[in-house]
């Protein structure tokens, strides 16, 4: 019996070692075919910008083409679910967001994927504050005037790029903290929402800074505040919402790279290492900072820990605000 147990243990050890060696060999040869990076929103926003930057870098580093696949809808759930159900070989990745990988689980009554169990964290790419922007015809010139206007006139509308996004939940947090009667108007992406904001069909939007800051600088939209605890380096002239009369208000967007669950760790580590090298270059850092994005390049383990804390944080915000996915 002891010989049988020993043989079984030895066989298991050999199998494990063989599997590890195979994974190392796969990582060494990775990638040997085109890659796909899924963006869960329409083109033009921060996730799309990051995906295209990474695609160019991967092609330059590895000599393989990279397909950027925009799959918008359901607050990012459609694209994320596609990746969750893809082969765990490193060839299909997703630029996850604070919405798709920390907020949606609390906001949607039924999720098509598990935000943690169905993914292998690769790296936290970047963070950015949202920016509260209004149509230029709104008479309020600062946040306090806007709050007073909202309480006096009543109903207002706030646009988002979809239910569950940080853009949506930032608005819900603002609504609950100010007591203003506000109606959420979800769109299939910020590219669809912005024209309505510019045209005055919606009152306001908590957009990602990379999307709206250029419009603010061009004078097409008015910025009333940023959602981070400190002023953004890309726009230090814009005050934070917290310092403008809503102490404790903070809602930071983040973007991270995820692979399907059970993707071999050597492959995950190879992708993470290449992303880290790229984000630390002066060119990538400057480009992101100019857009209002702060590069991070975390380890997979750091991303996993950060995601866990964010899930707990946003679950409370969603519960307290009473927000629901439309």
Automatic annotation (TrEMBL):
It comes from the Bacteria. Residues 1-25 form the signal peptide. Coiled coil: none annotated. Keywords: Receptor, Signal. It holds the Pfam family TctC. Belongs to the UPF0065 (bug) family. This is Tripartite-type tricarboxylate transporter, receptor component TctC. It comes from Noviherbaspirillum humi.
């Amino acid at each position: 019996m002891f010989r049988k147990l020993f043989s079984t243990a030895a066989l298991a050890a050999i199998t494990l070692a063989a599997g590890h060696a195979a994974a190392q060999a796969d990582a060494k040869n990775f990638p040997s075919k085109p890659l796909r990076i899924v963006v869960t929103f329409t083109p033009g926003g921060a996730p799309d910008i990051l995906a295209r930057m990474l695609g160019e870098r991967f092609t330059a580093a590895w000599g393989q083409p990279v397909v950027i696949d925009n799959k918008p809808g359901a607050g990012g759930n459609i694209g994320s679910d596609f990746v969750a159900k893809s082969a765990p070989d490193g060839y299909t990745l997703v630029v996850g967001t604070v919405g798709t990988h920390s907020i949606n689980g609390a906001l949607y009554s039924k999720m098509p994927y598990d935000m943690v169990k169905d993914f292998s964290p690769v790296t936290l790419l970047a963070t950015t504050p949202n920016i509260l922007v209004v149509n230029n015809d709104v008479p309020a010139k600062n946040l306090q005037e806007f709050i007073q206007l909202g309480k006096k006139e009543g109903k207002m509308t706030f646009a988002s790029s979809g239910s569950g996004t940080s853009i949506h939940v930032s608005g819900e947090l603002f609504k609950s903290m100010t007591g203003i009667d506000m109606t959420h108007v979800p769109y299939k992406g910020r590219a669809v929402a912005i024209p309505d904001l510019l045209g005055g069909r919606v009152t306001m939007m908590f957009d990602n800074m990379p999307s709206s800051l250029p419009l603010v600088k061009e004078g097409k939209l008015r910025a009333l505040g940023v959602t981070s605890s400190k002023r953004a380096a890309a726009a230090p002239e814009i005050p934070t919402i917290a310092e403008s009369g809503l102490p404790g208000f903070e809602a930071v967007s983040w973007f991270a790279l995820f692979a399907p669950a059970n993707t071999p760790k050597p492959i995950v580590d190879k992708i993470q290492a290449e992303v880290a090298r790229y984000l630390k270059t002066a060119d990538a850092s400057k480009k992101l900072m100019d857009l209002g994005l702060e590069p991070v390049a975390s380890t997979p383990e750091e991303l996993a820990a950060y995601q866990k804390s964010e899930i707990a944080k946003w679950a409370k915000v969603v519960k307290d605000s009473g927000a629901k996915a439309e």
